[in-house]
TrEMBL record:
Keywords: DNA-binding, Nucleus, Repeat, Transcription, Transcription regulation. One of its GO terms (molecular function) is transcription cis-regulatory region binding. It comes from Salix brachista. CDD domains: SANT. GO terms for cellular component: nucleus. It comes from the Eukaryota. Residues 9-61, 62-112 form the Myb-like domain. The keyword Transcription applies. Residues 157-176 have a biased composition (Polar residues). It is found in: Nucleus. This is MYB family protein. Residues 9-61, 62-116 form the HTH myb-type domain. Transmembrane segments: none annotated. One of its GO terms (biological process) is carboxylic acid biosynthetic process.
Length: 264
DNA sequence: AAGTGAATCAACCGCCAGACG
DNA sequence: ACGTCTGGCGGTTGATTCACT
């Protein structure tokens, strides 16, 4: 029994990604789009699991990602959505353009969870902790006014470990429908990623190779992408974000259409 | 200055559901 | 209808960084 591993374990590199690997992956995705993650490592010349490539791209390399800590509005929205959706991080992330489920999950576990506990609120049920003895209550949608949870000046983060670059998105940027922030890429505070998306990086023909030189036609991808077209493609990233990453759907979404039923 | 513990977050793992043949 | 494959999700781990003593 047992599932077949998602990829051949032998020869597959694990651990932190190097700048070189990032280059290859970004180049490949820019050239050929996201298709068949299983084939990406081979075609891109990476010794990585396809799953790992997808994760690296979606969590770190995507051009539409915001960097830095969640701002106050985003944090409030996360808490609110968690009260409605539970640990469905991907659905929560879908409401915060530029944020990943992994990022939100981490933020929840490191900051928000502790803060709620500190305030006597059970992060799992969003009910006061002292009620825990009573029989299990069903999750009550948005039972608390979370506005009061965000203490003035803390921005939700008591820690001084970071330089609070989370405020890259101005507070009050949330729109009427609850969306927060913009979907513009902001990698300024992350030098490696900033470099990857810089013109210098993208124009570097020394790495802008055609992967392993294999024929991608079988995957429905063109093998003749020129440097120019890649640059043009990148320059259009803002627009492409709408189509390629489905960001436009966020703009048209409303909380009411959230899949509260979920599959789990 | 060095040691230690805590905090953070990128990355991995295993499972699940949908697509496809 | 069934089995396999793939992408996606949520939970967890572990390396790194930071604060404190």
């Amino acid at each position: 029994m047992g599932r077949q591993p998602c990829c051949d374990k032998l020869g597959v590199k694990k651990g932190p990604w190097t700048a070189e690997e990032d280059k290859k992956l970004v180049n490949f995705i820019l050239s050929h789009g996201q298709c068949c993650w299983r084939a990406v490592p081979k075609l891109a010349g990476l010794r990585r699991c396809g799953k790992s490539c997808r994760l690296r791209w979606t969590n770190y390399l995507r051009p539409d990602l915001k960097r830095g800590l969640l701002n106050e509005d985003e944090e409030k929205l996360v808490i609110d959505l968690h009260a409605r959706l539970g640990n469905r991080w991907s659905k929560i992330a879908a409401r915060l353009p530029g944020r990943t489920d992994n990022e939100i999950k981490n933020h929840w576990n490191t900051y928000i969870k502790k803060k709620l506990i500190k305030m006597g609120i059970d992060p799992a049920t969003h009910q006061p902790l002292h009620k825990q003895e009573s029989p299990r209550e069903s999750r009550v949608p948005c039972p608390t006014n979370y506005d009061q949870l965000i203490l003035p000046g803390t921005c939700g983060h008591a820690s001084s470990r970071t330089d609070n670059s989370s405020t890259t998105t101005p507070a009050g940027n949330s729109s009427v429908d609850g969306r927060v922030g913009s979907s513009e890429p902001n990698n300024d505070d992350d030098p490696p990623v900033s470099f990857i998306w810089s013109d210098v990086f993208l124009d570097d023909s020394s790495w802008n190779f055609q992967a392993t030189g294999e024929d991608y036609s079988e995957l429905g991808a063109s093998n003749s992408t020129s440097d120019d077209s890649i640059s043009t493609w990148f320059l259009d990233c803002a627009d492409i974000g709408d189509e390629f990453f489905g960001l436009s759907c966020f703009n048209d979404m409303d909380l009411s259409i959230l899949d509260l039923g979920g599959k789990h």
